[in-house]
Amino acid sequence: MNDTPLLIPCPHCGAMNRVPATRLGQSPSCGRCHRALFDGRPLALTAADFDRHAVRSGLPLLVDFWAPWCGPCRTMAPEFEAAAAELEPRLRLAKVDTEAEPGLGARFAIRSIPTLVLLHEGRELARQSGALPRSRIVAWAQAQLPR
């Protein structure tokens, strides 16, 4: 891995931080609020902060599009959270509630939930529909990442 700085949005205050790629695994913290940039849990994104993490960030973003009434979504939620602890800091995991954020669901043409969408710099790399266990989420995401 090279030492090229990546732009990483703070999950707490939204500030953009430049972090050398080689330092991602060293628990970097935000330059503004001083909290950890990675805490091993998925972010809850809204339309207001989605592009900061999906387009402006140098990290790939794995998004779980879900809804509170969806049984398979609720079943997969703890599996997705466990996957975040395993996949960070190589990529960021986030959740989008399609009931609260229908515009984001429409933007990504979400037709069934749960649906995982892997993005990098605003471009969709891959998608997978249906509930998955942690091990399959991790394996699928790692297989889709650019080498």
Walk me through the structure.
Keywords: Disulfide bond, Electron transport, Redox-active center, Transport. One of its GO terms (biological process) is cell redox homeostasis. This is Thioredoxin. It comes from Lysobacter arseniciresistens ZS79. The chain is an alpha/beta fold and 147 residues long. It folds into two domains: 1-37, Zn-finger domain of Sec23/24 (SH3 type barrels, Roll); 40-144, Glutaredoxin. It contains four helices and seven strands, in the order βββαβαβαββα. The strands form two sheets. Strands 3-5-4-6-7 form a five-stranded mixed β-sheet. The protein has a two-stranded antiparallel sheet with strand order 1-2.
Keywords:
single chain; about 150 residues; alpha/beta; SH3 type barrels; 2 domains; 4 helices; 7 strands; electron transport
Total number of strands: 7
Structure annotation, total helices: 4
Q: Averaging pLDDT over every residue, what do you get?
A: 95
The H/E string reads EEEHEHEHEEH
By CATH's scheme, which homologous superfamily of the largest domain applies? Glutaredoxin
CATH class of the largest domain: Alpha Beta
Output the strand order for the largest sheet.
Answer: 3-5-4-6-7
Distance between the termini: 10 Å
Radius of gyration over all CA atoms, rounded: 14 Å
* Share in helix: 25-40%
Q: Provide the CATH architecture of the largest domain.
A: 3-Layer(aba) Sandwich
What is the CATH fold-level name of the largest domain?
Glutaredoxin
Shape: globular
Oligomeric state of the chains? single chain
GO molecular function: protein-disulfide reductase activity
Domain Thioredoxin: 22-146
Keywords: Disulfide bond, Electron transport, Redox-active center, Transport
Protein name: Thioredoxin
